[in-house]
Write a structure and sequence with these properties.
With 212 residues, the protein is mainly alpha-helical. It has two domains: 46 residues, Arc Repressor Mutant, subunit A; 138 residues, Tetracycline Repressor, domain 2. 69% of the residues lie in helices and 0% in strands. The radius of gyration is 19 Å and the shape is globular. 29% of the residues are buried. The N terminus is likely disordered.
Length: 212
């Protein structure tokens, strides 16, 4: 996982620089929250990674919890919109769902670990927010999409769509959570060719197990 570069602290930017600073703050927060957890990460540490004053982080986001919410939503909202668009199409194959998930995680490789820490595990600070606002449009919408695949004869009728959805999510999320171990112990690569190979492998497994 990449490490943000420490820079000389700077004051509040003006003009177009504002969006860049907000983006840098969220990038640093995503890395630190994923690596060491929300509770163990301070706004001061995030500010130091970006090279800004802690007051600037407060100015843009108000609190650490709001910053975490922004970090999650900036990547999960586009994913939710893409899934919604796929749901309206004639076909929503497992391969297409896999492609959407892996594309999101390749752009935000710390996201799966962050979601695991602060959403999936007991006591996660974003669990309630995620369940109310994001889950219904993300994994929660997958069973209905797979049920449609069953009705159209493209997916086996003897499978439970909810468990199938869980299987797809697990296959796509876990490799990124286990990335450090997978790279060192299993020689799995997460560069562009490696991710293409991973997507092909997952798609092949799903096609063999789900396709009617």
């Amino acid at each position: 996982m990449a490490t943000a570069t420490v820079r000389k602290p700077k004051g509040r930017p003006a003009g177009p620089a504002t969006a860049d600073i907000r983006q840098e703050i969220q990038d640093a927060a995503e890395i630190l929250f994923a690596r060491q957890g929300y509770a163990a990460t301070s706004l001061r540490e995030i500010a130091r990674q970006v090279g800004v004053n802690p007051a600037m982080v407060h100015y843009y986001f108000g609190s650490k919890l709001v910053l975490l919410q922004h970090v999650l939503e900036r990547s999960l909202e586009p994913l939710a919109l893409a899934i919604s668009k796929m749901r309206e199409e004639e076909s929503a194959p497992a391969a297409g769902i896999t492609g959407l998930l892996l594309h999101t995680f390749s752009e935000h490789p710390g996201l799966p670990a962050l979601v695991a820490r602060e959403v999936l595990l007991p006591g996660g600070v974003m669990q309630d927010h995620f369940l109310e606002y994001l889950a219904p449009r993300l994994g929660g919408s997958l069973p209905g999409m797979l049920r449609k695949e069953q009705r159209e004869g493209r997916m086996r009728n003897d499978l439970d769509p909810s468990i199938a959805a869980l299987s797809i999510l697990s296959l796509c999320i876990f490799p990124f959570i286990a990335r450090e171990l997978a790279e060192k112990a299993l020689d799995v690569h997460f560069d562009s060719p490696g991710l293409q190979k991973l997507e092909k492998h997952i798609t092949s497994l799903l096609d063999g197990g789900l396709t009617a």
